[in-house]
């Protein structure tokens, strides 16, 4: 069974908002990695990634991602800022989108733990809205990994 847990949000001294999620996924690491660090996998639950250059310094554009309901359908372009195959994929975008980081922990029993962090410019109200958006996105990730139609959940 998959579990999506919202961690505590925070506002750093410089005003950066931080969201954290932990998602337990009953799938092998290579499958989860492909979903968060591959153009086809990202398209199945998050956004079309084109271009997508899977290496540090590589270009990445998430088409139609936006930062929440107020920016639905916006293309967000940035750079791959961390890349450790089957462990860490991090994408950094310009303000206000910030940085998203997917960190896979080694399998624990029958599941993989995905730790997610999103750092961005905004206020606490935007942090709350984005937390709801990411919760829905992770619900789509779970559906996509389980072989269900994630698009139906949009």
Give a summary of the structure in a few sentences.
The chain has 154 residues and is of the alpha+beta class. The chain contains three helices and nine strands; from the N terminus they run E-E-E-H-H-E-E-E-E-E-E-H. The chain is globular, with a radius of gyration of 14 Å.
Question: What is the annotated CATH architecture?
Answer: 2-Layer Sandwich
CATH-defined topology: Alpha-D-Glucose-1,6-Bisphosphate, Chain A, domain 4
CATH superfamily: START domain
Structural class: alpha+beta
Q: What best-fitting shape do the alpha-carbon axes yield?
A: globular
Specify the CATH class: Alpha Beta
The succession of helices and strands, N to C, reads EEEHHEEEEEEH
Please tell me about this protein's structure.
The radius of gyration is 14 Å and the shape is globular. α1 (29-37) packs across α2 (39-45). Strands 1, 2, 3, 4, 5, 6, 7, 8 and 9 form a nine-stranded antiparallel sheet that branches. It has 154 residues and is of the alpha+beta class. The model has no long low-confidence stretch (mean pLDDT 90). The protein starts with a strand and ends in a 9-residue tail after the last helix. The protein has a single domain, classed as Alpha-D-Glucose-1,6-Bisphosphate, Chain A, domain 4. It has helices at 29-37, 39-45, 124-145, and strands at 3-6, 10-11, 16-25, 48-52, 59-63, 76-84, 88-93, 99-104, 112-121.
Notable characteristics:
9 strands
What topology emerges from the helices and strands here?
Elements: E1 3-6, E2 10-11, E3 16-25, H1 29-37, H2 39-45, E4 48-52, E5 59-63, E6 76-84, E7 88-93, E8 99-104, E9 112-121, H3 124-145
Antiparallel strand pairs: 1-3, 2-3, 3-9, 4-5, 5-6, 6-7, 7-8, 8-9
